[in-house]
Specification:
Rossmann fold, N-(1-d-carboxylethyl)-l-norvaline Dehydrogenase, domain 2, 3 domains
């Protein structure tokens, strides 16, 4: 395959690494570019800076078709270039588009006429239309909506459900190499105008948030009226209007940054155009309330009144199978209980212990249980369900377990004398 027919990926953060590997797995020769001097070097040496199940194996299996570089000249030799830099959000969940915009403009100024540019990074409505007007003559721009999920990103990248492709005119044919790329993944291709594609990801996330909020609201109510939410879920799964894949498992609100970003984007757009988005504010309030479930339980059980014994915290990541702690309910809990001594463990995620002066991290889940007044399972890692509960009982000083995601065997916990609490029961 000639240099011109190689597919380039600019930005080797989570999104760029995952899609570089997935594209190579479909038989394409790939150039992955990142201007950070050590990023390409680490990937070439086999060191992967993100945690994602199956990613290391995918990279290893397709190593012959992957070339990571820090030289932009290698990237601009490609005739199809994807921009796959993860867009960071601030403490208020607003996107910082400056690094992405600078990367696109820097690369676009160097490409040859006839090059196809595709943005995969999440951008707000209007971004692509404005950018397309600035590009050199003969360079075409597309926006491809990514729907990766932390912890299941490899599967969703290699076997996508569908591709949503934004363009200036949905009736125009796509460049040959881009069309070959899209068809290689054997999924439905939905062409649409830029603005439709940009809001498509937001629409998906808003529907997910509404499911999360509804499940959390009703699961909590079940716990108060002596119902069991897990008994209700099968009835919902069998309803064609809701379906077998609906997000019905209760949890600690939304986290990770991507869903939160889209809610803020909808609010900003509604304010700008004079539409009503008050329901979004309700979702945000519901999420904040759900996030603090464990904190409320700790107060109700008076477990924060005695500081002589530490709390055991299992999980720091915002969800299982990721290293990300963005908007993590676990970190929110640690901040809320302040100076109360805590012992914490996570299989992958780490924290800056200098920012959490009362938190000590340990190398295993069982170490955390030793001497703890209560055990709080804040991330649904499968590993936690395999820890011997008898050993946990023998290690703990107290008998309270808070397990919002029902990771542990509830019946066995109660048999062993634990005061066991979970969502929806």
């Amino acid at each position: 395959m000639s240099e011109a027919n190689r597919i380039g990926f600019a930005g080797l953060s989570h999104l760029g690494i995952i899609y570089s590997a997935a594209t190579a797995a479909r038989g394409f020769s790939v150039i992955g570019f990142d201007a950070r001097s050590n990023c390409a070097d680490e990937l070439r040496s086999g060191k992967v800076p993100v945690s994602e199940p199956g990613l290391q194996d995918l990279l290893t299996a397709n190593r012959s078709r992957l070339n990571f570089t820090g030289e932009v000249s290698d990237l601009v030799a490609c005739s199809l270039i994807f921009f796959a830099l993860d867009v960071a959000t601030d403490d208020h969940n607003n996107s910082d588009l400056r690094p992405l915009s600078e990367l696109i403009r820097s690369v676009a100024a160097r490409v040859r006429p006839g090059t196809t540019l595709v943005i995969m990074s999440q951008v707000p409505p209007g971004f692509c239309r404005r950018l397309s007007a600035e590009l050199p003559e003969g360079v075409r721009l597309f926006y491809q909506v990514e729907t990766l999920v932390f912890g299941n990103a490899v599967e969703r990248a290699v076997h996508p459900e569908r591709y949503m492709v934004g363009c200036a005119d949905p009736e125009e044919s796509r460049p040959e190499l881009y069309e070959e790329f899209l068809k290689a993944f054997e999924c439905p291709i939905l062409p649409m105008r830029y603005e439709s594609a940009e809001i498509c990801k937001i629409a998906i996330n808003c529907f997910l948030v509404s499911s999360v909020a509804t499940a959390n609201t009703l699961a909590e109510l079940c716990g108060e009226i002596h119902a069991n939410w897990s008994e209700v879920v099968p009835a919902l799964r069998l309803d064609k209007r809701i379906g077998p894949y609906a997000y019905l498992k209760p949890g600690l609100g939304i986290a990770g940054g991507n869903l939160e970003r889209d809610l803020v984007t909808v609010q900003n757009l509604a304010a700008q155009h004079g539409t009503d988005a008050r329901v979004v504010g309700a979702w945000q309030q519901n999420s904040a309330y759900a996030r603090d479930w464990a904190l409320r339980r700790l107060f109700q059980l008076q477990l924060l009144e005695d500081s002589s014994r530490p709390l055991g915290i299992w999980g720091l990541a915002y969800k299982a199978d990721t290293h990300s702690t963005k908007n993590s309910p676990s970190l929110a809990l640690l901040r809320s209980i302040g100076k109360h001594r805590c012992q914490a463990y996570d299989p992958v995620a780490t924290i800056d212990t200098s920012a959490f002066g009362s938190v000590q991290t340990f190398p295993s889940a069982l170490d955390v249980a030793r001497g703890a007044s209560a055990l709080v399972v804040m991330t649904a890692w499968k590993e936690f369900g395999a820890v011997p509960l008898e050993a946990v009982r023998d290690a703990m000083a107290g008998r309270v377990i808070l397990d919002p995601y029902a990771v542990l065997n509830a019946g066995r916990c109660r048999e062993l004398g634990f005061d066991y609490h979970s969502l929806g029961v």
